[in-house]
Design a protein that fits this description.
Blueprint: H1 5-21, H2 27-39, H3 45-66, H4 73-101
Helix pairs in contact: 1-2, 1-3, 1-4, 3-4
């Protein structure tokens, strides 16, 4: 099964963040995703930029939780809720891509804060 472009863009932006923020060598993975992105003969920059921004916010927020700083449980809970809300935004972007390219599936999370997930 071919990976839908919504997943490719999501994974590309996460891998791009990994290449920028860690010492892990992910050049081959980045290159594979970029080749797939470039195989689409349309400009996907608007989706890549938005997905990069939201994944960056998620990375930062999850990093705040992982730092191991002794945070009160209430603060950890607030960060976890922020990650949940950011993931809703991420899923909405992916849903827009699914709608535009008619490939892949929309992620609908149970018990998540209600969003329109790209639906009109």
């Amino acid at each position: 099964m071919k990976m839908p472009i919504s997943e490719i863009i999501d994974r590309f932006t996460i891998t791009k963040l990994k290449s920028e923020r860690t010492s892990e060598n992910v050049e081959q993975e980045l290159s594979c995703y970029l080749n797939e992105i470039n195989s689409y003969k349309v400009n996907l920059d608007k989706y890549i930029e938005r997905m990069y921004l939201i994944n960056s916010k998620i990375w930062d927020t999850e990093g705040d939780i992982r730092k191991g700083i002794k945070l009160p449980l209430e603060d950890i809970g607030k960060l976890a809720l922020k990650v949940r809300d950011l993931n809703c935004e991420r899923n909405a972007i992916k849903a827009e891509i699914v709608d535009e390219f008619s490939e892949g599936f929309k992620e609908i999370k149970i018990n998540y804060k209600k969003n329109n997930y790209g639906r009109v």
